[in-house]
Amino acid sequence: MEMIRKILSREFLLCFFTQFIFTLATFSLIPTLPIYLLRRGAPESEIGLLIGCYAIASLITRPFVGKELLYKPEKYFMIFGGLLFALASISYIFAKSFWPFLLVRVLHGVGYALFTTASFTLITNISPEGHRGQSLGFFILAFTISTAVAPPLGMFIINHFDFIYLFLTCFALSLCSLFITTKLSKRTVAPFKDSSYSDGFFLSRSAIRSSILGFFPFFIWGALTTFFPIYAVNNGVSNPGFFFTIVAIILIFGRLFGGRILDLYSREKIIMPSIFPYIISMIILSFSKTLPMFILVAIIYGIGPAFLIPALMVYAVERGGHPGPIMGTFNAMNDLGISLGPVIMGIIIQATNFKIMFLCLALTGFINLVYFYLFIKKR
Predict the structure, then answer these.
(1) Coil, helix or strand for 34?
(2) pLDDT tens-digit map of 219-257
(3) Contact 181, 57 (CB under 8 A)
(4) What does the alpha-carbon distance between residue 164 and residue 180 come to, in Å, rounded to a whole number?
(5) Do 349 and 227 touch, CB atoms closer than 8 A?
(6) What pLDDT, on the 0 to 100 scale, is given for residue 202?
(7) What is the pTM of this model?
(8) How far apart are CA 131 and CA 137, in angstroms?
(9) pLDDT tens-digit series, residues 104-123
(10) Would you say residue 199 has pLDDT above 50?
(11) Tens of pLDDT along 48-59?
């Protein structure tokens, strides 16, 4: 209990709640924007591009933010990111055609990259030594709880009101998050000298392996969040957001009751078993057409990221280096996965069908397993 009290400091709690509200606005758009674009008559390939460009913008931004965090306080980037995010949220109302919508998505992605790269770096820096796994596991609950609440909330708003009310809600949430961010203390950044960061190299070399391992599950997640809502609606499910709620509940229980495991066992012993739920869930999803089967898939799927993502983040940090570039590199690879997932799977859906796409996602999980075995475990 004493260690938990040390983890849950004032700065941690403020960062947790501002991240929760910020992510609430983000995740409200996960099941709703694909439906919004579909109702406007956009084909699957265009939907994949417009959803995926958000993460591409975030991907490009993160390494630069990570390097700047060597010299500047995290709070500044969180405030600037929150402002951009709020501006993008209200701009959705006016983006009626492809190119304006694309620009808004890019702006949204840049704001998200600024905010989350800085928030993860802040939590890493203030975590008690030897308990970063548990601390990051607790912090990621801000994303997890948002995953439980936001998608059904977003679907409720568009089913009972209109998309304009959804965008106004996201704008209001962004402002609330921005207000809490201003209450964070102004941390002094200690000088950090390392030639790998000062010579213009924006990525953390020590984080490359774990970042590649993170690419594949986020590739699956990006495709799943883009196309599962459409697949579920086509099979008679009125609120696909409940799928993400079940995933979030599993994540919450996994991190609350299993968080200490992240600091008790080697990262390799946690990473490998955590990849299997991705493969199994996508195989089952390819044959699923009913709500009970979707719930079963959500339960199995949720077990994977509950342990895999915090384990990979701590593994990256423990390889050495400053948390800023490490988090920038790790999250940039995640964004690459999230962006490529919808784009590539959108092309596959148009050429084949949803069943083949979900099986391709299972294959993606298997490739990750092979990569881990050959390049991490055997070495």
Answers:
(1) helix
(2) 999 899 888 988 998 998 888 888 988 998 898 888 776
(3) no
(4) 25
(5) yes
(6) 60
(7) 0.78
(8) 10
(9) 999 999 999 999 999 988 99
(10) no
(11) 788 878 878 888
Q: Which two tokens stand for residue 359?
A: 């099986």
* Cβ-Cβ contacts under 8 Å for 266 (sequence gap 6 or more): none
Q: CB atoms < 10 A from the CB of 65, how many?
A: 29
Token digits of residue 211: 């970042």
Q: Other CB atoms closer than 10 Å to residue 205's CB: what's the count?
A: 15
Radius of gyration of the chain (CA): 19
Residue with tokens 């196309």: 227
DSSP one-letter string for 323-349: HHHHHHHHHHHHHHHHHHHHHHHHHHH
Residue 13 banded pLDDT, cuts 50, 70, 90: very high
Nearest Cα residue to 120 out of 305, 266, 330, 320: 330
Amino acid at 238: S
Angle at 41 between CA 36 and CA 46, to 5 degrees: 80
